[in-house]
């Protein structure tokens, strides 16, 4: 069975400050089929889709539709060409109703002025029936669960009658039942001749639903073929290539005494319930503790409780056996805890400051006598850390935003290490950095652990978890649902534990 | 002009030269304005005129220094003009009446004590601003807009809207030296200029060489990131608003001493001039970027421009129009600089790998 090609990218290159997201890619999008797109975080999948959706423009190269070059200068252009996209990050207006969100900028009007609310509501109900969800069109989007919001995003694209529909990780927040519904809708769209691009990290899902597969690595396409005969092994090889096994080799070293201990940590969720629900764990010096869980399992929130970001969090924490009395971030840092946040851009770095100023932000006290800061000593220390962590920079005075993701991450790590921590918390330390830098970050983690630092790291990447952790904790719905020694841990066990408490998801049964 | 010569790339040479020019734009503008008036306005270059002009500039420069700190940390302080008025009235009241305790006698103060009390008043109002912003979560624009009205009203209430005249002080109480703040000279320079030099140097030192200064930039650049790095964000905000209040109090003192009178409407719209000077000097309204040196140059551009236009006999209506155009032009050029900077970096990156 062949499908005609509806859209092509030829020689597409996209440069961002600090990174090359796409390196001359050639991509074919087939109509009436599901075109699956895989690759690691930061491989360039989302960038490529943003280019197609008109959100970003190619630095070089062109886009062809039905053989003709087209210019997609904005989302309006893309929409005119029948391209719809459901973004990975939800782009909704939480202060508006479901119907208003679905018809934003395409309102059904009487005489172009008066919005026909009734018609919009009716159309929304129709869409919801099609998606088998019982969501009232007048609900505020902010009141919906993330999974439901994702359904609304999908409905929004359906409402546009798109010829090409891009779904960027649409299932990441959906429950198993909701995924089934989505798959039925996709099959339906396929029959109508819609070309679908489907991005996901769940490989089994891809093999099940895809007709064609394209694999991206480091901004380049490393494999593109029809789905027939493709198995997980092939995808993984194309995704991570030969460099994949370059995870840090284990350095065997004895663990020290218990360095950190948390008891009954709780954090109420704003909408009720618990984001972190009585979590306890302990960590020994030199140990790497991997924390695994699905999105929203409360992993990041737990780390934030430990660093003191949430003053109203409950529970007790001990460093070196001493109870922490301080509840402020600066106090926790002084007690020997350091955090490398998940969101490097918004939490980890001050983008407009220089590399030097970012690195020393947590430890300026070390260069200060009274009021006076010794800039020479500061530069010296930064130079040491740049060398130690092999950060590639032209000058430490350049803005940190000019660095690539991997080097930015090293700056954040440097900032944390400068506070001389005993416990290092790392939230998704490999997110958005390329493979080479990843391996280096992992090597650094190993080395630090060997030097006696206790490390807690949160990850969603199974391979990373298995390769790096000395011990594994699995969280689900704010609770610890599993704890394994590395020797006993298998992927199946870990995944089963991460789904605990998710089985009876509070989804209303579809009414049809 | 910190990293003027850090990125030498041969093919991007012209772009780099343009960047250096753009970065020094306020300074170039000052020289151009200065040169223009030196030719166009008679007596512009005379020593007497220079002294008068720098006295005018000093008032705005004080406020602009405080404003720069506030804006760098990501806020705005609209209340400074009213603090100037209120502090002037407090100073006038203390010189004329002292503090009447209602016991049939009053406490009188000497000049130094008056200055200290007035400065404390300014700092306290700044602390109120910071309290509203940090503890009660009021947006800086609204919080300081509120104190703008409150302070102006309070200044009017002091005298029922009348002027406190003849602040000559009383030698018996040691307050007769109050006039010297505005009128006195040391080594040929007016005292207010010496004060400005001291405050500017301290402020520049704080910004460049103390953790406090570094934290201000960090809070303005990324408040969440700074907080997660252990920066005590609220403390930094208290400092900047209190410092801004202090600067305004100094201006209140200087103005009432120069005029030997204090009027409750003094300082109206001063906050706008201060913001203008900071922006002209390259301070980014979104926070995280700005320098004291730039702000001083910005204050001079505005001051020289308005005084020069007066000397040329240009109508005050046109002066206002020209001032507005200069501010808009400054921001447009600033945007162009940002864009060019980003493009140079992007090209280097695309060529590099």
TrEMBL record, chain A:
Instruction: Give a yes or no for keyword Cell membrane in this entry.
Output: yes
> DNA-binding: present as a keyword of the record?
no
Family matches, as SMART domains: AAA
Name any one Pfam family assigned in the record.
Answer: ABC_tran
Domain called ABC transporter: residue spans? 7-243, 260-502
Q: Name one GO molecular function term.
A: ATP binding
Task: State the source organism's domain of life.
Answer: Bacteria
User: What CDD domains does the database record attribute to this sequence?
Assistant: ABC_Carb_Monos_I, ABC_Carb_Monos_II
Q: Which UniProt keywords apply?
A: ATP-binding, Cell membrane, Membrane, Nucleotide-binding, Repeat, Sugar transport, Translocase, Transport
Xref: InterPro entries: AAA+_ATPase, ABC_carbohydrate_import_ATPase, ABC_transporter-like_ATP-bd, ABC_transporter-like_CS, P-loop_NTPase
Concerning PROSITE patterns, the annotation shows: ABC_TRANSPORTER_1, ABC_TRANSPORTER_2
Cross-referenced SUPFAM superfamilies: P-loop containing nucleoside triphosphate hydrolases
- UniProt name for this protein: Sugar ABC transporter ATP-binding protein
Automatic annotation (TrEMBL), chain B:
Q: What is this protein called?
A: ABC transporter permease
A Pfam family (short name) is BPD_transp_2
Q: Which UniProt keywords apply?
A: Cell inner membrane, Cell membrane, Membrane, Transmembrane, Transmembrane helix, Transport
Q: Where does this protein reside within or beyond the cell? A: Cell membrane
Under the heading InterPro entries, the entry gives: ABC_transp_permease
Membrane topology reported for the UniProt record? Multi-pass membrane protein
Q: Where are the transmembrane segments?
A: 27-45, 57-76, 82-99, 111-133, 187-207, 238-261, 292-310
